[in-house]
Hints:
Elements: E1 2-5, E2 21-28, E3 32-39, E4 48-56, H1 59-65, E5 73-76, E6 80-88, E7 100-103, H2 113-116, E8 143-146, H3 149-152, E9 153-155, H4 162-165, H5 171-181, E10 189-193, H6 197-208, E11 213-217, H7 221-229, E12 234-236, H8 243-250, E13 256-261, H9 266-275, E14 276-284, E15 309-312, H10 319-330, E16 340-345, H11 349-358, E17 365-369
Parallel strand pairs: 1-3, 10-11, 10-13, 11-12, 13-14, 14-15, 16-17
Antiparallel strand pairs: 2-3, 2-5, 4-6, 4-8, 4-17, 6-7, 7-9
Helix pairs in contact: 5-6, 8-9
Bound molecules: zinc ion (ZN).
Amino acid sequence: MSVETIERPITPTVASxxxxxxxxxxxxxxxxxxxxxxxIPVPGPFDAIVKTTRALICTSDGHTVHGAIGPRDDLTxxxxxxxxxxxxxxxxxxxxxxxxVLVGAITPDWLDEASQRGHSSQSNQPLGGWxxxxxxxxxxxxxxxxxxxxxxxxxIPDEVADDAAVYCADMLSxxxxxxxxxxxxxxxxxxxxxxxxxxxxxxxxxxxxxxxLIIGVDSVPQRQTLARSYGADIIVDFSxxxxxxxxxxxxxxxxxxxxxxxxxxxxxxxxxxxxxxxxGTIANVGYHGHGDFLHIPRLDWGVGMSEKSxxxxxxxxxxxxxxxxxxxxxxxxxxxxRMTTHTFPFTHLDAAFEMMDQKLDGIVKxxxxx
Length: 370
Ligand code: ZN
């Protein structure tokens, strides 16, 4: 991956409200990223413009640059951010300039058919609620645009720092979704496959949902340690033992009530099906970016009659959910900032992106400070 920087004069400013252009970190075609100057966006009547204060790089930003949504020219990357409201449209009622806000990674339309059916993240097509760095510019810029601001932003409580709140945009929401979808009985047994940021928050979510035994599966020591701090009782290192066999042994041969797939690999998905007991639930929140098919192991799925449910979902958006997630941090139940292994200024986002893309230096989550 090559990094390009465009040298352009910074627009002279009289006052910040008169700045007309901003710096943005963009995808410049397949496998290429760099900084450009762009106009500061303007809001429609229901929208807001947010001045970015903190952002997080996501593994999926790397997927995008490597072609997950095809080639794009100068598409601003990033979908996890918090900031200060800079400007609101005439119909926005809940927010005013100066408010400190969290913005969801997924910003649904809310009035579309899928939302009416209760699937707001999907909007008018599968994954249609995903707009940042997909169908419009993302949040790796000094300012970014938020559609339907009243529904897609949340006020950040005074007690919650930006450094923590920014995790609610995607990581808490997606990880907790894994635990929510997994239908965990109080005291039940759970296996979490892959302990990246989503798996770590799925682990924390499983504990919040009342799991009695949480088994985390990963080989990276730093992630294992974090998983224990978020509630994993036992770690299975798949590089040292067969995870299916290990989980069967740990559960007296019964398997787990719930398995959470937080990686996005066919093998891991199959293992999740294998370790789940009859009547249990396999919750998939991993992004499956390769191959034409996922394989369900036929016998382990009880020849199609084991009452094992396979469910999946995309990070839910919405103000009400974000307010709940922020409350979890406010009350001290989960501290997501332990996942911040690296911090970079916005001007060094190129270096941070490279490090995240290559997963260098034990990186879990890089925080970008604006
Ligand atoms: Zn993300």
